[in-house]
Amino acid sequence: MIGGPCHFTARTVRLIANANHKPSVLGLLAESYGAQEQLAALEGATSERQIVQQEGLPGLAPSQLATSTQTGWTFINASFAYKRAGGSRFNTKDWGAWYSTTEVDAGLAEVAFHFTRALADASNSFDNTTVWIELWADFDDVFHDLRGIDPEPECLHADCDIGYPAGQALAEELRLAGLNGIVYPSVRYPGATNLVAFWPQLVRNYRQGARWKMTWSGTPDPEISRF
Known about the structure:
By secondary structure, this protein is α+β, with helices and mostly antiparallel strands. Helix content is 28%, strand content 29%.
């Protein structure tokens, strides 16, 4: 197996789209506590996050998810509940993970790359404005380390069609063995360090940070500004 264990201690940032950062979509309809409970049950029937909180994921029981005693628990659980079709670099289509990085610029580069791909796939003509929100958290645990490996492993290949299958195979092996996740060099922002955490309880000291706006105006290169 490539790489090995390391004790990783860092403050990291994750960026999520503003559309995913909102109160209950049905909350404004409720005028009483009883109605709120009924609407919450209705929303939960179709909310993937709430379904996962009730049923869990492969290898992740509901009891292992974040609870309401933990700040930011809904956003933590959402990162494990919502997955890209086909999975990402270090998670399969069947389970999600918490991706973060040591530098905001690296996070911006990552989300800009993936959102630009999504716009291209949707034949959007690159006409879009999206707001992203920083989610900060601390980590202090042992992770599998892929930094400083020469030659660079296939799982870090910039081409997603090459890197993702290799990365998912490695992640599945590590996760089944009960390991915490992977520390790896940023593929989209050289010099930064990225982290993928496999388990919700590893996300500590959650807090929200700044907002960023990305605007695509006819080209695949967005204008990025903080506000």
